[in-house]
Every structure is written in C-alpha cells, then in structure tokens.
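The following record pairs a protein chain with its ligand, 3-isopropylmalic acid.
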Amino acid sequence: MNFKITLLPGDGIGPEVVGEAVRVLEIISSKYEHSFNFQERLMGGCSIDQFGQSVTDETLADCKASDAVLLGAVGGPKWDDPKAKDRPERGLLALRKGLAVFANLRPVKVHPALIDASPLKPEKLKDVDILVVRELTGGLYFGQPKLREMKDGHERAVDTLEYFDYEIKRVVELAFNLAKSRKKKVTSVDKANILESSRMWRQIATQIGTENPDVELDHMLVDTASMRLITAPVSMDVIVTENMFGDILTDEASVLAGSMGMLPSASLGESGVGLPHEARVGLYEPIHGSAPDIAGKGIANPIGTILSSALMLRYSFKLEAEAAVIENAVYQTITEGARTADLGGKLSTRQMADEIIKNI
Ligand code: IPM
Ligand code: MG
C-alpha cells in the first residue's frame, strides 16, 4: 500500500528522534512491501526563523493533503521571549486545530524491565497499562476571549475555558469505543465541584455511560486523579479528560513508564460523526518536548517517536500487524537491556534505533 507522510521534525531533539523513526518505517516498508512517501516541512521555531511564522498556510495545506503527520517536538529558549508575536507552540496548536484532531491518545505502559527506572515503588507499577484520551482542540488552550489589557489601572489577563456539548460528546464516545477493546472501564476526569464546563462534561459522560452499559464508568475530580495516578495506577484503565487536565496528567503519568522519552501519542479526528475531510489525517508525536539541554548531542531516546510511528500504522493506515512488529521490537530491545541516557544507559539515539531495527 501507498502512503504519504508529512514529517515535521521541529526543534531541539525533534529532528534526531524523527530521523530514527523514519529509518524504522523504511525497514517496515521494504519488509512488508508498502511505500511510504515522506515529505519534510518546517514547523515551530525553525519555521519562525525561516518564514517568520510558526506554521505557514502551505505547510498546513501539505499536512492536510497527506495520509498522516509525524511530528518531533517544538520550542526552545531561542523563541521564549514573552513579547514575541509568534511562538513555536502556536504552530502546534494551529496544526491540531487545522487537522481537527480532537482526541489525543496517550498510552502509558510500564515495561517490567524499566520498573526500577521509575521513582515509584516497584509493587505499584506492576501491570500498569493506562490509556489517557486527552481532548485536544478545545478548552483553555483555545477558548476566547484570550487577552491581556489594562483595566481600572491594573493589568489583567484572561483565558477562557469553553466547551461545546459536541466537543465533549465526540471525545468521550471515542474513549468508550477504545475501552471496549480493553478492560471496559472509563474514568472521566473533571473538576465538577468548581467548573461549569466540568459539570456539563460529567453530565454528557454520564449519558454516554448509560448508552454503553457494557463499559464501567466512574467520574473523578482531577486533583484526586492526579493522586490516584501515583498511589494506585493499576486501578486506572481508560482516562478521558479535557485538554489542560490531560496535558498535566500525562506528564505525571510518564513518570510511571520510567522516562518521558518512552511515551508516544496519536491525535485523531475520525469518529464517524460527519467530520470534515481533513479530520482523517492523524497526527503522531512523542509526548516529550524539544529538550534543548540535550539537543544536538545524539543522546535523546527515540522510542517515544518510534512508538508514535507504530500508532500511525495502526490508526491511520490500519496496518495492525506492522504496528505490533514495531511495538514488539521495542519491547524486546528494552528486555535485552538497551538503554539511552534518560534510562540510565549509554546508547546513543542512533544505537538505540539500531537495536530496535535488529529486532524487526
Ligand atoms: C504536549 C505539550 C504541548 C501541549 C505544548 C508543547 C504546547 O506540552 O503535547 O503535551 O501543551 O499540548
Ligand atoms: Mg504536555
């Protein structure tokens, strides 16, 4: 089969880890006779430097015209000026919104051989297998108004937490569907004791729960959820939550896996509810950032990005067997003891990918 993949390596360690995922995909394509056509574009700080904009209309159009997008990371101290008119992160948000990828899937699995890499007690980590479904195109990240102004002699800043009912419904439904091929358990995370948007979230989730009696639903306040994630992670399965809560909880959850460098993500728009065409283009990225402190050293862990490419094969191309081959190769490689610096080892980015490729 033939697929067009747009690569957005981005900033910092982004290009290093994306380069290794491409090598893995190339092995898969020759072994299983698929053709992956890669086109590379700038997005983030590199795009600001080149075009004066974190993402251009052309890049956005090219992403929409491809079958999937693989992203590295964006941002860095060079573009951190709070007064700058554009920021690398704005490009990422424009991309998520432009592709209408409203659901961000962040699987958190603990490899038994990495239990010691986590600061949590080993007995808490056994059998942890969580899927966080983070709403990605709404909430505080996008709500209007968003402004800074002078009022009554004081400077004032406003962000808005806004959700439409359909935005909640589609992401919670997706979480329920995903739960059906797992342990049939959904935890909906909100702050319904304080936020109106959360009360509507809870009401809609409850309704969807009633329509899906085969799936067990519980509601949890976000502060409780952040505690449960580290005190009893094994009790969690599918977690569905709004954009900002999901951002925070997934960084926390990455501690379970031993390193943020391990975790992939898939951002999807498809749910069969009359979405625009571009909603079919999935966006795949590791959950880690651009790690400016180690950029250019060739020591970043490529696993999060390699596993993201596996999710791309699974969700965008429906190549389940090939996706599993990559995931098993990563699993095997870790079992054999291969470790990059974030996991306490000495392998370079390239060497880690070489070990994974040997297992494909
Ligand atoms: C993430 C990141 C992004 C986010 C940043 C880089 C804008 O933290 O993907 O989790 O907040 O969504
Ligand atoms: Mg984040």
